[in-house]
Amino acid sequence: MWKKGEYPMRSIDIILPLLGLLYVISPIDLLPEVAIPVLGVMDDIAVLSLTIPKLIKEVDKFLLWEAERKHTKIIDAEII
Asked: pLDDT by residue (tens digit) across 10-58?
């Protein structure tokens, strides 16, 4: 829906969570797990702790938007 231009959303709201997930998946880290085992995992956890809530918030906003959109169409169809 966002790509079609139907769902109003800022690009940054999708880019930041994707960058966070790419950072966690990427073998390149600021604190490598091989060199510093505990701290290496902690930076990935920190990125995920910032990324996942943002992603969940966006999904919730989209689901609410979609439900309102479907509900409005049903009401309009009943009125006509």
From this structure: 888 888 888 888 888 887 777 777 777 787 788 888 888 988 888 888 8
Three-state SS for 37-65 is HHHHHHHHHHHHHHHHHHHHHHHHHHHHH
**Distance set, CA 75 to CA 33, 62, 65, 78 (Å):** 55, 20, 15, 5
CB 31 within 8 A of CB 42: yes
On whether the CB atoms of residues 61 and 50 are closer than 8 A, the answer is no
The 10s digit of each residue's pLDDT in 55-79 is 888 888 888 888 888 775 545 545 5
d(Cα 60, Cα 11) in Å, to the nearest integer?
A: 17
Q: How far apart are CA 20 and CA 23, in angstroms?
A: 5
